[in-house]
Amino acid sequence: MQFFKKSFFSATALFAAVLIGAGCSDHAAKSASSPTGKELVINVMPLRIQDVSLTNQYVGYVTAIKAVEVTPNVSGYVDEIWAEGGKNVTEGDNLVLIDQREYKARLDSAQAAATKAKADFDNAAAYYKRMQNAGKQAVSASELDQAKSQFLAAKAALQQAEADANLAAVTYDYTILQAPISGVVGDVTLTKGDYVAPDGNGLFSIIQFDPIRVKFAISDKEYLEAVAANGYDNPFADRRIMLNLANGQTYPQEGIFRYADNQVDKTTNSVTVFADFANAGRQLLVNSYVDVLTVRKMTDIFLIRQNYAVLNNDGAFVYVMQKGRLKQVPLKIAGYFKDYYVAENKFARDEFLVIDKIGRIEPGTKLKMKINQPAEVP
After folding, report:
1. What is d(CA 43, CA 308) in angstroms, rounded to the nearest whole number?
2. Using one digit for the tens of pLDDT, what is the confidence trace for 152-162?
3. Is the pLDDT of residue 21 over 80?
4. How many CB atoms lie within 10 A of CB 260?
5. Are residues 271 and 164 in the same domain?
6. Per the domain annotation, does 162 fall within a domain?
């Protein structure tokens, strides 16, 4: 199964209504260059620290943690049906009764045979003991050997009879089908008088609904980054796992990371992740699709408009001015929000983001900053 991913980010300004690199509505990035010996005015903006919630969205698939098809272990005609579709059952609850008469007769016969075998064994054991106590003068060696042989045969017969009785008891118990797990019963079309057998199809299903599992795929790159940040045991330790349902509502319970698959899907270069959700209200149904949201809170970061950055073979960088000097700073990009980079750089308080396109600047040119106030992101 292929999964497709969409990404988006929501941001909350640490400083009210100020976003990094958000250009004023009447100011577009323009080229800045200068003739020799002239003053050059460069438009800049303050760099402001932000707290940002980065949200990735994936397609999730709801699956059961436990699910079984109730199948009989013995054949026969259905005598009673206690299971009801849609009802909760607890492990061990009685679900279906198969006609017990034949199996009860087999059990009685096997138990009777075991009782007779026990009596035969007791007689053989007593006789063998008497022969041993009689001594060599009263009993010949052949008579003693015969008594021992009868004793051992009676012992083996008793063991076989007891095993047959135990098997008959187990088979008899199989006439009552019990819930192997706790969960919700599926559609029950079975009726009294139906003939059922172990080699037939399952009679009905039981699915555990609470908790329930959702699986979704992330790229191999995302997986490696998450493991590097948080370790293999819980690569999602720094983010919340949430769901949006088909009706557009947000699922009220957050998920718990369980594990990631042990291999990469070579067709999509993705790793499947499994998370469990409380589901007492049965809103999450097996085989349904949901939107999975992973939300990671990042502090002390910067939002920088992408058209204020320059791309080269080494990545993206921006121009920054500090005390009248112009310099290049590589961006440490953690994610994206609309047309902004989410950068984890550490900028000084007196550094300003250049929002002009920087062209050729001749030696000796005096640089002067024109500070622009950033606007809100639309």
Report:
1. 11
2. 999 999 999 99
3. no
4. 19
5. no
6. yes
Residue with tokens 């198969």: 98
Phi, psi for 170 (deg, rounded to 5) = -65, -45
Q: Are strands 176-178 and 270-277 parallel, antiparallel or unpaired?
A: unpaired
Q: Which domain holds residue 142?
A: 77-206
Nearest of 330, 314, 294 to residue 222 by alpha carbon = 294
| pLDDT of 241 over the 80 cut | yes
CATH number at residue 332: 2.40.30.170
Peptide bond into 35 cis (omega under 30): no
Q: Could you tell me the pLDDT band of residue 31, with boundaries at 50, 70 and 90?
A: low
Same domain, 377 and 231: yes
Among 206, 229, 246, give the residue marking a domain's end.
Answer: 206
Question: Which contiguous run of DSSP H or E holds residue 114?
Answer: helix 101-134
What is the CB neighbour count within 10 angstroms for residue 241? 21
Q: What's residue 37's pLDDT?
A: 55
Q: What is the pLDDT of residue 32?
A: 63
Which helix (H) or strand (E) segment holds residue 119: the answer is: helix 101-134
Q: 110 — phi, psi (to 5°)?
A: -65, -40
The per-residue pLDDT for 186 is: 95
How wide is the angle at C-alpha 265 spanned by C-alphas 262 and 271, nearest 5°? 55
Per-residue pLDDT, 376:
65
